[in-house]
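FW: tagging you since you asked about this chain on Friday. Here's the raw sequence from the shared folder, copied in full. Didn't touch anything.
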Amino acid sequence: MKIALLLCDDISAELHDEFGHYQDMFRHLVNEDDELTVFPVYLYPESKDTHLPNIEEFDGFIVSGSKHGVYEDHIWLAPLFDTIRAVFKANKKLVGICFGHQAIAMALGGNVAKSDKGWGIGHYQNQWLSLSNEQGERNEKDESLVLLSFHQDQVDTMPSGFEVLAASEFCPFYVTRYQQQVLTTQGHPEMSAAYILAIVNLFEEKIGSDTANQCRQSMLEQDDTQNFRRKICEFWNN
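HL: got it, structure written out here
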């Protein structure tokens, strides 16, 4: 498959030597024989021609994470939202990661806000949900989902037609899906634990020492990153 990465940020320059660039992490979310082309949408004002894809040339699209908020005033957000809507209308495969999860929701009629529950950083437990039963009710499966996370903002209203696949009291829309076309998560399956710990160390003053220490403690346990990466890779082919 030919997959376009709509890159909405890069990692801090202080971390480039150890972790490379943000776009490098997304090889984990595509299959070995997939062709991944990067479009740095967040640099849109510098060159409009090279920072947005021709939708017809690609089979799938990923919207990356970002330190920015989808409700902020950035010149590149409107073109990003337009691209998401065009991808959706064209029935192309679409994956959203953290900010990308929020951007897809916002572009397609949902809403995003800064959560009054505070930071979600490191590991926190979510639950996979079953499909709706005949009465339209949803029941929890006996399966947890733990991914790396780093966010304050959350989707608080889903777009029409989307369903929740995994959730928690802290984050009610942690993994969402639209039919077999769109898959999004508030988590960061592209990132490594070492990278999350590095940015926690770098931004400890901003997030607060209590939150930073809570994150470090939470990450002593294993998570489901590898399994979720495989789920995304399988999604491209289904």
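FW: DSSP finds seven helices and 13 strands in the chain.
HL: agreed, and The first strand starts at residue 2 and ends at 7.
FW: great, closing this out.
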